[in-house]
User: Which sequence fits this backbone?
């Protein structure tokens, strides 16, 4: 800084923290996060290390990530940009399986918010979660072992998304942390729900508007963490099997009011299995949209259409798989 050198690598060191750039060395990044994330147990002083990486390259450091979590290291890893939404860069930079990695990795709470207010809530919660060291008893509201603490994975996008107005109600704030909330609450005669995670939010919201004339009481479920939703659901099932009949997870409470013949259409810029399990929670028919193959190079619109993540494709799925007005005519109206 003092020499005014023309470089992007200008880091000012201060007691509040420091920035370390490793370059193309993802395994080293996770080794460093793991080591720094163990400082509280090794040296009695806690650090809160935060690492950033292109989301597809999380996979390059999986061995170190796994062992860091195994040792109970505490850190935050931010994967961005992600998915086929970084369309112009081609398949080599487009992540597919990383939402599933976030769900499967023990000791790592994975989130994929769509909006800035969601991210602010998640990060505030995460900085506390990283420092927890409680017992493993589950919270009987969510059946998640939050008091144990752990590391946090944020899957983000650099694609600009129009932000909603100010939201501060308790159900929104708690739902963001628990893994999902109703962006558009379904009515009593709901024909369909569109459940999305992450950056495809505008497509899901627009699709719900497109089918409103043809389907009743359509709901929009904003999923901020398929990981936490799934973990709470499976933990509640285990608790019921062991005799705790009152155990109910957050996702079960969200989906319980839906009519049995309601269809759930899911969308995520990642592998569709990330959300396809939602249909098993209460027995609803589910149609899952996502990415299963390496992407092409093109515009975001091109790739969303190619993989069925655009609003027209999501709306068409709602109309084709739910009850309501004659599908062929409605499908033509949506397509036009």
Assistant:
């Amino acid at each position: 800084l003092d020499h005014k050198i023309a470089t992007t690598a200008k880091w000012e060191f201060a007691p509040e923290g420091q920035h370390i750039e490793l370059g193309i060395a993802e395994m080293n990044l996770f080794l460093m996060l793991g080591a720094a994330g163990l400082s509280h147990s090794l040296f009695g002083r806690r650090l809160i290390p935060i690492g950033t990486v292109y989301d597809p390259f999380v996979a390059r450091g999986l061995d170190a990530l796994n062992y860091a979590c195994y040792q109970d290291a505490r850190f935050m890893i931010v994967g961005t940009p992600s998915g086929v939404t970084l369309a112009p860069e081609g398949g080599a930079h487009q992540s597919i399986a990383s939402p599933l990695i976030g769900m499967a990795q023990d000791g790592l709470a994975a989130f994929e918010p769509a909006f800035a207010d969601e991210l602010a809530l998640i990060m505030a919660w995460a900085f506390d979660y990283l420092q927890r060291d409680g017992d493993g008893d589950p919270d009987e509201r969510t059946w998640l072992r939050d008091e144990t603490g752990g590391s946090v994975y944020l899957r983000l996008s650099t694609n600009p998304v129009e932000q909603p107005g100010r939201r501060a109600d308790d159900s929104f704030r708690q739902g963001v942390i628990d893994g999902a909330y109703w962006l558009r609450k379904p009515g009593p005669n709901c024909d369909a729900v569109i459940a999305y995670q992450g950056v495809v939010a505008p497509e899901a919201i627009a699709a719900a508007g497109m089918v409103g004339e043809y389907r009743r009481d359509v709901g929009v479920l904003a999923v901020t963490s398929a990981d936490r939703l799934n973990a709470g659901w499976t933990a509640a099932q285990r608790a019921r099997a062991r005799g705790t009949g009152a155990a109910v997870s957050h996702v079960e409470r969200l989906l319980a009011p839906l009519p049995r013949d309601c269809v759930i259409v899911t969308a995520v810029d990642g592998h569709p299995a990330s959300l396809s399990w939602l249909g098993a929670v209460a027995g609803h028919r589910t149609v899952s949209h996502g990415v299963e193959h390496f992407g092409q190079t093109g515009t975001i619109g091109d790739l969303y259409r190619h993989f069925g993540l655009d609003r027209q494709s999501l709306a068409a799925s709602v109309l084709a798989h739910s009850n309501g007005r004659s599908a062929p005519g409605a499908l033509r109206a949506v397509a036009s």
